[in-house]
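User: I'm writing a tutorial on reading structure tokens. Could you give me a worked example: one chain, its sequence, then its tokens, then a sentence or two explaining what the tokens reveal?
Assistant: Sure. Here is the example chain.
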Amino acid sequence: MVAKKTPGTATAAKTAVPKARLAAVEPGELAVRPGEDPWTPQEVEEARAELESEQARLRAELASSEAALTGLMRDSGDGAGDDQADTGTKNITREHELALAANAREMLIQTEHALERLDAGTYGLCENCGQAIGKARMQAFPRATLCVECKQKQERRY
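And here are its predicted structure tokens:
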């Protein structure tokens, strides 16, 4: 069976932001909106340090959640003598830990993607329209991949 192309795939490929520039860019060359000051080397290093700190924190949080899940899964089979309330509490605790681990994993992926974009020189470019996201937005939310306009459009679709 041959997979069909979905409509718009060809046009999306033409307008997508390139994954990496040919060469690493200097800090002042990172994308900014018109009227914004260019990125200084210190601001780029601050963004990198914040992302790397967040990456380390998320890895530790993920390891902790996975250890807790291992313990919960090991203890879940031993339900002898538990009443329905005990079983329900164990299930809720396990589901809560699963949700925390999934959230940490997703944030870690976003953080690593932001670091890759910083290295590639595409940090601060909207992955949808290719326009600058805005320096202030990137400083407030360093994992941002969409400009405000594209993010609003995305949220209205859901």
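What the tokens reveal: Residues 1-24 have pLDDT under 50 and may be disordered. The two ends are 31 Å apart (CA to CA).
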